[in-house]
Amino acid sequence: MKRIQVVGPKEDLGRAVDILYRAGTIHLENATRLVPQKEIGLVPGEVEQARDIADVLSAIDAITGTLPVVEDDPVRQAAVSATMDARSHRELVSRAREIIRELETTTRELSAKKSELALSVTALNRYAKVLDIIHPIEKELPALEGFEVTILLIQQEHSDVLGLIRQEIATITGDRFEMISTTVDAETLAAIMVFPKSYSGQVHTFIYSVNVNEVRLPKEYAGKPFYEMYAMIEESRLRAKEEIRAIDTQLMSLSSIWYQELVVIKKHLEDVHAELSAYANFGLSEYTFVIMGWIPKKYLKKTRKALHDAFGDRVVINELKTRAEDMEDAPVFYDNPRWVKPFEFIMQLVAAPRYREVDPSPILAIFFPLFFGIMVGDIGYGILILAIALAIRHRYAAVSFAKNLADILIISSIPTIFFGFLFGEFFGDLGETMGWIQPVTIIGISWNRVDAMIPMLAFAITLGVIHVFLGLAIGIRNAIIRKSRKHLMEKTGMLMMISALILLVLMLGGFAPDTLIWPVVLLMVVSLPLILLGAGVFGTIEVMSTAGNILSYARLMAIGMASVILAMVANRLSGAFGIAIIGIVIAIMLHLLNLLLAMFSPSIHAVRLHLVEFFSKFYEGGGVVYRPFKKEIKPKAPVEV
């Protein structure tokens, strides 16, 4: 990673930024903070235009939120986009404002009117529902002339309040009122009150004071018989719906005219806004602009050429000298082979590595599929996992999460099939039972997982030793690079102490000669002071923790054993029922369950072995991810076939 400085005449800033934005290679830093004021007085670039575009985008969002969505027209959008590409930023904003002036007031008024009509329809529906409730008792109500009808809606649990309301209304009206209650639904009561209009103000003031939900029919309904009220409600409702349809037609007409151009201009302005928002990082003097940042070495030549082709020697890229402490702030650029890229997704679970730390992604790309394959270890399941992963990758190619997950499963299915061949497993022992496959015999051991539990456990622990020792070795390397004497002593002492403990266990188990006792003692004598000097008393505790980390790799055997036993149970059940079809269905269901577990459980445990047991030996994190100044390209959705 190279730290660079782009310098040129102030009047060329806009064009230079366009070129760098299209190149998409520079990770920007704030030039005004990094360039000392005593060298040159810099002020941040103007961001007023970015704010202006943000306002325009907000207005466009409001308009497109009102207009009906129409199907994208790629041909028309491409033609509009071609005209937009030829325009400057200011011309784009000017065109956007023309469209906004044309549409904003009209769409806002139409939207407001539509909302008002929709509320009106809701209210009318409510009135109709209330009339439906009281219509059956119409004959019990007195003549409505000179009287007012109001309806109260009360929750069933508060039905006791009806007595208090009745008592208070009797006091207000001198007992000149009628009140009838009926059930609306399981939770609501409706109380219909009829009282002289002369008491209207007092009655409504009281109802408001007790916070009861009141449904008041409009004044034009007062004194009307029920059939007329029904007719008025229906007429008003039909009229409102007709007006809503007319507004929808107007909006659809506007959308057919303007929608395609709005979509295109919004995309262009979003790109411009992202570009202009970075102006605060640029430094300006009276005559000069300064842009600072980091660029991967592989992109430096290309970026320098792009600027030279546009400006000659007027705008130049200077490669700055960096000190060791400067590199601590350098962004991390993942430049891994294609087969490693999916495993960078798992690295998102932890903070990015520091610039001079080892990137664990390639190691993860090797050991994750290995651990996964050992735990699943079945040809049949491996083939199904591969098929499912390929289907996910094809169907959800535009979804980054799904694509990375599918790629990881595709890669992991290969060692799964390999270890399935080694263990002689095809849907458990089905392949062996049918005579299709047999476990491979190596160094006199038949690698049938059920029969070879001890060799499998030893194999898993050996992998744990290799993995943890690799982590400690990387920790020693990082300590040397960072010139951290304490970390160097701690990791070296830990490596020697664990080696001594492993040799001691092998001697006690009769797997190593007793003559190794003196090298073991020597390793312990040398490593203990190193651990104490590097990590203090807690370093001795870390020794036991590391030993426990190694034993954790026994899960490679245990999870694999659980998987093969469940597969064997499924196979046995297929023939355990008198009706063959029932046994087959149950066996298939158990195999599907085992397949589901095989896809998720080994993945989780393989990730844990890396993040907890492995990363803890060397990984610090806390780095800055390389984020180039460029247009974000959104992946296209797959075409439905």
Structure notes:
This protein folds into 3 domains: 2-87 and 257-327, no CATH class; 124-237, Alpha-Beta Plaits (2-Layer Sandwich); 341-620, no CATH class. The two termini are 44 Å apart. The strands form 4 sheets. Strands 1, 2, 3, 8, 9 and 10 form a 6-stranded antiparallel sheet that branches. A 4-stranded antiparallel sheet has the order 5-6-4-7, sandwiched between helices. A two-stranded parallel ribbon has the order 11-14. The protein has helices at 13-23, 31-34, 48-66, 74-85, 89-134, 161-173, 200-209, 226-276, 297-311, 324-327, 341-344, 361-376, 379-395, 400-423, 430-433, 453-481, 485-508, 517-535, 538-551, 555-573, 580-614, and strands spanning 2-9, 27-29, 43-44, 147-155, 178-183, 188-196, 213-216, 283-284, 288-295, 316-319, 331-332, 441-442, 445-446, 624-625. Mean pLDDT is 85; it is low at 633-641. The protein has 21 helices and 14 strands. A hairpin with a 4-residue loop joins strand 5 and strand 6. The relative contact order is 0.11. The chain is extended. By secondary structure, the protein is of the alpha+beta class. Helix 13 runs antiparallel to helix 14.
How would a textbook summarize the main sheet?
Answer: 6 strands, antiparallel
Q: Total number of helical segments?
A: 21
User: How far apart are the termini?
Assistant: 44 Å
Report the mean per-residue pLDDT as an integer.
Answer: 85
Q: What general form does the structure show?
A: extended
Class from secondary-structure proportions: alpha+beta
Q: Nutshell version of this structure?
A:
The protein folds into three domains: 2-87 and 257-327, no CATH class; 124-237, 2-Layer Sandwich (Alpha-Beta Plaits), CATH 3.30.70.2750; 341-620, no CATH class. 61% of the residues lie in helices and 10% in strands.
